[in-house]
TrEMBL record, chains A, B, C:
Alphabetical list of SUPFAM superfamilies matching this protein: GlnB-like
Organism name: Prochlorococcus marinus str. PAC1
MF annotations from Gene Ontology: enzyme regulator activity
Record's protein name: Nitrogen regulatory protein P-II
One of the GO BP terms on file: regulation of nitrogen utilization
UniProtKB/TrEMBL annotation, chains D, E, F:
Record Pfam families: Sbt_1
Top-level taxon of origin: Bacteria
Keyword field contains Membrane: yes
Protein name: Permease
Transmembrane segments: 6-27, 67-88, 95-119, 131-153, 174-194, 209-226, 238-261, 267-286, 298-320
Swiss-Prot/TrEMBL keywords: Membrane, Transmembrane, Transmembrane helix
InterPro entries recorded: Sbt_1
Taxon lineage: Bacteria, Bacillati, Cyanobacteriota, Cyanophyceae, Synechococcales
Amino acid sequence: MKRLDLIFSERELDDVLSALEKAEVPGYTVMKHATGRGPERIVTEDMEFTGFGSNAHVIIFCEQEVIDKIRENIKSVLSYYGGVAYVSEATPL
Amino acid sequence: MKRLDLIFSERELDDVLSALEKAEVPGYTVMKHATGRGPERIVTEDMEFTGFGSNAHVIIFCEQEVIDKIRENIKSVLSYYGGVAYVSEATPL
Amino acid sequence: MKRLDLIFSERELDDVLSALEKAEVPGYTVMKHATGRGPERIVTEDMEFTGFGSNAHVIIFCEQEVIDKIRENIKSVLSYYGGVAYVSEATPL
Amino acid sequence: MGQNLFIQNALSPPILFFFLGAIAYALKSDFEIPAPLPKLFSLYLLLAIGFKGGIELQKSGFTYPVLPTVVAAILMSLLIPLICFVILRLKFDVFNAAAISAAYGSISAVTFITAESFLESQNIPFDGFMVAALALMESPAIIIGLLLVKFGATKNRPIKRKMKWGSILHESMLNGSVYLLLGSLLIGFLTSAVDPTDIKKMEPFTGELFYGAECFFLLDMGIVAAQRLARLNKTGAFLIMFSILMPIINAVLGSVVAKFLNLDSGNALLFVVLCASASYLAVPTAMRMTVPEARPSYYISTTLGLTFPFNIIFGIPVYMSLVNTMIPQI
Amino acid sequence: MGQNLFIQNALSPPILFFFLGAIAYALKSDFEIPAPLPKLFSLYLLLAIGFKGGIELQKSGFTYPVLPTVVAAILMSLLIPLICFVILRLKFDVFNAAAISAAYGSISAVTFITAESFLESQNIPFDGFMVAALALMESPAIIIGLLLVKFGATKNRPIKRKMKWGSILHESMLNGSVYLLLGSLLIGFLTSAVDPTDIKKMEPFTGELFYGAECFFLLDMGIVAAQRLARLNKTGAFLIMFSILMPIINAVLGSVVAKFLNLDSGNALLFVVLCASASYLAVPTAMRMTVPEARPSYYISTTLGLTFPFNIIFGIPVYMSLVNTMIPQI
Amino acid sequence: MGQNLFIQNALSPPILFFFLGAIAYALKSDFEIPAPLPKLFSLYLLLAIGFKGGIELQKSGFTYPVLPTVVAAILMSLLIPLICFVILRLKFDVFNAAAISAAYGSISAVTFITAESFLESQNIPFDGFMVAALALMESPAIIIGLLLVKFGATKNRPIKRKMKWGSILHESMLNGSVYLLLGSLLIGFLTSAVDPTDIKKMEPFTGELFYGAECFFLLDMGIVAAQRLARLNKTGAFLIMFSILMPIINAVLGSVVAKFLNLDSGNALLFVVLCASASYLAVPTAMRMTVPEARPSYYISTTLGLTFPFNIIFGIPVYMSLVNTMIPQI
Ligand SMILES: Nc1ncnc2c1ncn2[C@@H]1O[C@H](COP(=O)(O)O)[C@@H](O)[C@H]1O
Ligand SMILES: Nc1ncnc2c1ncn2[C@@H]1O[C@H](COP(=O)(O)O)[C@@H](O)[C@H]1O
Ligand SMILES: Nc1ncnc2c1ncn2[C@@H]1O[C@H](COP(=O)(O)O)[C@@H](O)[C@H]1O
Ligand code: NA
Ligand code: NA
Ligand code: NA
C-alpha cells in the first residue's frame, strides 16, 4: 500500500477532494490549520482570519493504481496554486 | 525503527492511548480536529460542536517489537468503531 | 527525496525554523496544537492556555544533502528541550 | 393569523441569520465559522439556559403546574421513541430504528430557545421552569433507545457489544451537553436560593448577551443544516417523510397533553416544541458510542438537515396556531 | 489642533491596544492570540457593524444624503483602483498592479470602526448609513481589479486561467466577509422594519460589547501588522512609498467629494476614511483565487503592515484636520 | 462564622462551576472545553483585570496606602521564594526547588478574581489598586527563581545553559500573560486620565461580562485541576504536603504584613490571597524556557492540582477568618 501526503492551501480543498473522489480513493484524512513555507510563499496563521486561508494536509492510504489515477488531476490543481505531493510506502498494521 | 499512523474517532482516544501504554510505547503524538472519509462514514467539522467528535491522528515512532505488541489491542478498537492503522519505515535523524 | 518529521514543543518553533532556513530547506509545513508523551514528559491540551505550549509537528520534504545540513542544529535544539526527529523515504507524486 | 405568525417568525433575527448561513452554503460562498468557535456558542447557550432555568425553578418552586409538566415531559420522551420505533421498524433494522427513535424522543435546545424568542416577540408569557422539562427529556430518550437495542437485538450482537446498565446510565446522564445543562440548572437553582446578588452579576453574561449569541449560533446552524440537507438524498424518501411528519404527529400529541395539563399558551407552545423537536447533540453522541451498528447519517442528517430547520421555520408558527386553537386565550 | 487630535487618538483604548500588540512583537514577547480566536472577533465585528448599519439605514430611509453618498462611495471604489493601476504599472506587471489597485479601491472595516470610535470620543455626530457605503465598496473594487486583469493581460494567460464573468461576480459578491457584512446589513434593515423589540434584544451583543471587542481585535491586529511590517523590506521602496502616499491622495480626493456632497464633518471623515483605507480581507482573498500570478505579499503586507497602521494612528486625526479645513463647522 | 463563610463561598457560582468541571472529570463525563477556547477566557480575564486595575489606580493615585502596599507585595514575592527554596532543598535539587519556589512567590490571577467576587458578595469593600500589586508580583518571583538557579547551580550547568541577565529579564517581563496584564493596566491608567467616556464604553466588555466569563473559565479550570490532581500521586507526599501547607504559611505571613500596613479587611484579604496563591501561567512558562532541568509536573501539577483548588475552596474563607481575627472591623 501507498501513503500520499498532499499539502496545499485550504481554499483548494474542495477541488482536491473531488479529484480524490473521482479517483475512487478508499478514504482520506484532512488536517487544516497548517502553516508553512514553500518555494515562493509563506503561509502564516493570520491568514486564517483574513479569509486568505492557511494550508490543509491531506493523507491518503491507497493502492498504487489509485495513486496513478489521482496523479493528473492533483498535479493540475497544485501547479496552479502551489502545494506539494509526496508518495511513500505504508503497510496495514 | 517504525512509524505507526493511527486515524480514528477522537472518542476512542482514551482507549487507544491506554492500549499504547500497555504495549509500552516510548512515546506518541496526538493531533486532533482531523476530518475525513472512510469506507462508510464521512467525518465533518460540525461533528466537533455536536459532541460527536472528529478524528484523531496518532503517530508513534517505535521498534518493530512494540508494533507487534500493539497490534491486537489496536485492531480490536478500530474494528469496533472504524479507523485506519498503517506502518512505515523511519530512521532517527 | 526524504521526508523529515520533527515533533517538539511549539515554544522552540522559531529556533527550529531558523535552523531549517539556515540549511536552506526548499519548504516546510507546521502543524501546531499537537499533544503527546515522550520518554519523560506528557504534553496536554491545557498547556495551551497556560502559555506552556503544546507540541508542533514540522514536516520537511527535501534531498538527503539538506537532511545532513540540518542534523547538527536540529539535534542541539531537541537535546536541550526534548522532541523527536525521524527521516523516511518519499517520492514526488 | 397563522400566515402572519409565519412571516413574523421568518423575519426575526434568529431565523434570518439561520437563512443567511444556509444561503451561504447554497450559493457556495466561502463564508464559514471555523471549529471550535461553534462549540463556544453551543457551550454558552447550554450553560445560560440551564442557569436561567435553575433560577426560575427556584422562584416557582415545585408548585402546580411545575411537577406534573415535568413528569409529563419525561413520559413523552419515553413514549415518543416507542411510537417512532414501531413506525421505523417498517423500513429499518433494530439498530437504526432505535437510534433514530431516541433522537426524536429527545429535544433540541436551539429549537426551544428559538421558540422562547418567538414568544417574547409575540409578548406571550411563559415560565422558566420549562427548561427543567427540557433538561430532563434527554436522558430518558437515550435510555429507551438503548433498551430497545438491548432487548430488540440481544441475539444478533457479538458479546463485546452486549450493553451493560452501567454504560447505559453513563451515556445518558454524563453526556457532555446533558451534563452541562443539568449542572448549570442545579447551579442556578442553588445560587439563587443563597445569594441573589450573584445572580444579578451573572445577568449580563447569561441574560443580556443571550439573544445575540443565539443569532450567531443560528448563523452557523444554517450552514450545517444546509450541508446536511444536501447529503440527505442518500437516506431515502421514507426517512425524509418521517423527519417532517413525525414532528407534526409529536406536536399534536404534545398539544393534547398540554391542554390536559391546563398550561397557558406560552408554556403549551414550549411543551409542544419539546415533543416535536429532535436531538442532534446528546442522543447522536450516545448512540455513536453504544450502537455503532446504526448509521450516523440517518439520525444526524435527518434531525439537523430537516427536522431542525422545519421546526424553527415552519413548526413554531404552526404549533402556535395549533396551541391557539386548542387552548383559547382569555 | 491637529496635534491635539493626534494625541487624543493615540491615547484611545483601540489605538493603545494596537500598540500593545505591535510592541509585543517588536520586543519578542511570546504573547499571542491563537487562531481561530481572531476570526471570532472579525466575524463578530462584521456582523455587528452590518446589523447596526441596517438599522440606521431603515431609520434614515433613502433620503438625502443617503443615496448620493452611497453612489459616490461606489464610484470612488471604481475610480481609485484605476488611478492606482496607472501609478503601479510604472513598476509592476498587470497582475500585481491590478491586485494591489483593487485592495486600495476597497475598504478596511476596522479602520472605519476606529474612525467611528474617534468621532464618538470627539462628540462629533455621524450617520449609521455610512456603513451601507462601506458594505458596497468591496465588490466594485474587486470587479474592477479583475477586469483590469481580464482585459490587461488577456494574451499572456494560459487558457485555464481565462476569467469568466460568473467567477468574477462570485468572488466579488460571495466572499465570506462581504457576504456577512451585506447579509447582516439586510437583516438589520428588515428586522428593524418589523419588530423594534428584537433590535433591542440584540443591542447588548451588537452594541454594548462592540467597543471592547474592537479593542481586543486591534490587540491582535497590532501583532499581525508588526509581523507584516517586519517582512516589508523585500517589497521595495516604491511600494512602501505607495502604501503611505496613496491613502493621502485618496483622502484628499475623498474630502473633495465629501465637500461636494455637502456632508457634515462626521460623515465626511468616514467617507474620507473609506477612500483612504485599503482592504486586507475580501480583496486579497478574491485576488488569491482569481489572480494567482500576483504576489500576495505585495497586496497583503502593504495594506496590513503599513496602510492600516498609518491610517488608524496618523491618518484619522490628519483626515479630521483636513475635513475641518474643507468643511467649516457651524 | 468561619464555617458560614465556607458555605457561602462554596455555593457561589464561580466555585460551583469549578466543581461542575472537576466532577465532570471525576465521573468520566465526555464534557470538555476544547482548545483554544480556554485561552480566549484567560486572555480576556487578564485584559479586563489589568484594564480595570489601571482605572482604579488612576482614581486613587499613589496616595497612602497604595505605594507601601505595592512595595510590600513586591517584597513578599521576593521573600516567599527564598523561604520556599530553603524548605524544598530538603528534598529537591536546585533546579526543581528554584522552579517550585518561583511559582509560590508569584500569584494566581484567577484566585485573586475569585477572592474579589467573594468580597463583593460579602459586601466588603476593597480597592482596585490591589491589581497593581498583583501585576507586579509575577516578574520578581521569576527573577528570584532564576537567580537561585544562576548562583545555586552555576557549576553543574553546561555552558550553553548559562543564564544571561538579558534572558532573565526577558522571561520575567515579557512573558505573554505578564505582558498583557501590565499592558492593560497601563492602558487603563492612561485612558482614564485622558477620556472617561472611553472607559464607559469599555465597561460592558471589561466590567459587566466579567463575572460570567470568570464562571465559564472556572468550569474549565475544574476539569484541568482534576486532571492534574489525578496525576499527583507520582510527585510524592512531601510535595503534596508542601502545596497545602505553604499557602497557609504564606497567608499567615501576608496577614501580618497586611496588619502592619493597616489595610482594611477587604484589601487585607486580597493581599493575603496574593501571598498564598501560586502561579500556573507566567512562572511555569518562564521556568520551562530557562530551567529545563526542572520537572514541569512538579511545579504545574502542584499549583494547578492542589494549591489552586485549595485556595479557592478552603483558602479564601479561612484567610477571611484569619483577617477578621487580626484586623478587627469597625
Ligand atoms: N519542501 C516542503 N516540505 C514540506 N512542506 C512544503 C514544502 N514545500 C511546500 N510545502 C508546503 O506547501 C505549502 C504550499 O507551498 P507553495 O508551493 O509554496 O504554495 C507551503 O505553505 C508548505 O506548507
Ligand atoms: N484510506 C484512507 N486514507 C486516509 N485516511 C483514512 C482512510 N480510510 C479512513 N481514513 C480515516 O479514518 C477515519 C475513520 O474511518 P472509518 O473506518 O470510515 O470510520 C476516516 O474519517 C478518515 O479520516
Ligand atoms: N516515540 C515517539 N513517537 C511519537 N511521538 C513522540 C515520541 N516520543 C516523543 N514524541 C513527541 O515528542 C514530544 C516531546 O517529547 P519529549 O522528548 O518527551 O519532550 C512528545 O510530547 C511527543 O509528542
Ligand atoms: Na422530541
Ligand atoms: Na479605499
Ligand atoms: Na504567592
